[in-house]
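Attaching the record inline, Q. Sequence:
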Amino acid sequence: MIENVSNENFKILNKLSRGRNLASRQSSNLASRHSNPYLNKQHEAFDVLIEGKRLISQVLEFGLKIKSLYIKNDKIESFNHLIDKCQCPTYSLTEKQANILTETKSLSGIFALVSFQTQPIKNFNKLLYLNKISDPGNLGSIIRTASVFDIDGIVLDDGCCDISNSKVIRASLGAVFVVPMLKVDEFWLQERTEKLFISHSSKGISINEINFDSIPYIIILGSEAHGVSTDINNLSHQKVHISMQGKMQSLNVAMAAGLFMYEMNKT
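Structure, as predicted:
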């Protein structure tokens, strides 16, 4: 039986929605640590609100449990199949309530409450380290590609945006829930003994010359605008560039990450 969402329940959803919108607007500002559950409790679960049939279906494919569904009242019949698959409490939303919760330009009419628990990085041979990737779309795309190529994990420094940002979740198509990740401070790399390959716009060897058999290793990528930070570039490890034949001088970081992950999986 589908019931109307209660006022108390909707207040909780609205709070989650406003929280994710705030995270979206402040995605590059990680100073507010106390409001960011990922930074403070990396492996403790917290609830997030996700939106859209495709994203919810993918989360189910990953084997995650949907805690509850919320559907615009005139679209319930069109989502009957998904309701059956989720096997969870389902609630009806008015048009006004759905419009309050939505983040998309085209209202999908379906939302889901999911428990978000980051997956820890365990044993690894190949990692990505992301330096100050503050754009949630780029970060989400990188996480999605890491899932496709079965990368062992992604390490994010304090300059990266929050992975529970709704734009990251959407761009990753839910892969953010299953790819192992770790948030670290600026000193983490200095203590590593693995081989470091530092992405550079022009210096170092070509990506085609890397011996990816020399495992374990870490690929380090920075933003398109600023590249890898000076402190990381000063580490005495191998710099790597992607050769470009055209007039553009740089690649979008998500595209560059994809090329690195493709090469990593050729061995």
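The chain has a mean pLDDT of 85. Residues 1 and 90 are 8 Å apart (CA to CA).

More tomorrow.
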